[in-house]
C-alpha cells in the first residue's frame, strides 16, 4: 500500500500525487487485473479525487481524465478475454465437404472484444477475404471458397489473425483434408431402387449435368419384388420411406454424423438398407453423361458385426421383367466399420482379388445392380468418382527397326524439342496408343502423361 498524509488544516491545490507516491511510475500489464483503492477525507468545500493512467508509458499529467469506467469492476469479470467457441472445419478434420465454410465463432469478453476491421485469413499461403458478422457478443468469421477452386482429397492450412479493442494480437492455425468425392461424382442412394417394374426418376443421381440430388424422390414408390429388388429374408423390421413395398425392405434413418456428406453437398433425406441377407439385390437405373467416363466405384457400408461383402453388376436384359441377366463388374469387401452407425468406403475390386481395383466406364442410361454378399452390413450408397489416373505411372515403350521408331504408351503422348520442354500433345497420337516415327536428324523428346 502506498499513501501520503495531509495535515487537517493544510489547504491542497490540484496536484498529481503520483509523482510523490511513486515518482518512477507504476507499470501495469495489459490483460491483468489490479486492485486500486483511493481514500480521501474532505472537511468542506468542493474537493475530489481521481485515479488516472497513461498508456504511452509516461506518468499521467496533472488534470488527466480518470480511468474510463468500462475498465473498472467492482468484482472481477467472469469472461475477461475473447474465446473461440467453434472452429470449422475442425483441426485435423478429414472428409471435409468441398464447399465447407472456413473460420471461427468467437465470443467477445467483458473486457476485450474483436476488432472486426483487423481480421485477416490465409488459406494455403494465399490471402482470402472472410465475412465477419456480429450477433450480440458472438463474432463469426467465415470464408467459403468457390467450389470449383477446391481440390478433393487435399490438405488445407488456415491461418487467422486479428486484434482486440486494446491492440492485443491473436493468431490461430489449423489444418483439414477435403473429401475425396470430387465434383462430377454420381451417387446412387441405397433406398432409391427402381419402382413399378423398371421405372426410375431422371436426375436422382445428379444426372448428366451432375446437379446435387439431396434425396427423397422415391418416397412411397412401389417396387416390384423380383424385378426392381429382391429380399431373401422377407424381413420388415423397420418400415420407413418405401413403406408400400411388398415384401418390405427394412430401412433406417441415416442422417447422423458424416453419413449424409456427399463431398460437395449434404443430403436432406438419407436412409440405409438394414437387416440385410446374403443374396438381397437392388436395381438402380440412372443416367450418366453421354461422353463415356471412367469411374472408381465405392460402396458406403457399415457393420457392427462380421466383415461386409457385396458385388456390382450391370443389368443387360429387360429391367421390367423377372429373371434378368447381368454382367458382373466387381466386388466390395474389407474390414467392418466397427459399428452400425458409421459407414465407411469400400472400393470396387476384381472378384477374388481385393488388391486390384476395377475402373468402370459408363455413359448414358444404365441399370446398376448391387447385391449383398456374405457377412454383415447396412448398405447406404454407391459413389461413382471420375477416374483421373492420378497415382498410376504412365507407360511409354519404344522399339526401333528398319529406320522406324515405334512408340507404345498409356495415357497421353507429348513431345518437345528439348528435355526441359515445353512439352505439348502429339496431334497424330490422339485416340491411339501406337505411333511410328521416322527420324529426320532433329532431336525430339517424348513422354507419356496421365
Strand content: 35-45%
Low-confidence stretches: none
Major sheet characteristics: 8 strands, antiparallel
Q: What's the order of the H and E elements?
A: HEEEEEEEEEEEEEEEEEEEEEEEEEEE
Would you write up a description of this structure?
This protein is mainly beta and 450 residues long. Helices cover 1% and strands 37% of the residues. The chain is built from 1 helix and 27 strands. The strands form 7 sheets. Strands 10, 11, 14, 15, 16, 17, 20 and 21 form an 8-stranded antiparallel sheet that branches. A 5-stranded mixed sheet has the order 2-9-8-4-5, with no helix packed on it. Strands 1-3-7-6 form a 4-stranded antiparallel sheet, with no helix packed on it. It is flat. The protein starts with 17 loop residues before the first helix and ends with a strand. The model has no long low-confidence stretch (mean pLDDT 86).
In a nutshell, what does this entry contain?
The chain is mostly beta strands. The chain has one helix at 18-21, and strands at 83-88, 93-96, 102-107, 120-123, 126-128, 131-135, 138-143, 155-163, 169-178, 186-189, 229-230, 251-253, 271-273, 281-302, 309-315, 326-333, 344-347, 349-350, 353-357, 359-372, 378-386, 395-401, 404-410, 412-416, 424-425, 434-437, 445-449. The radius of gyration is 35 Å and the shape is flat.
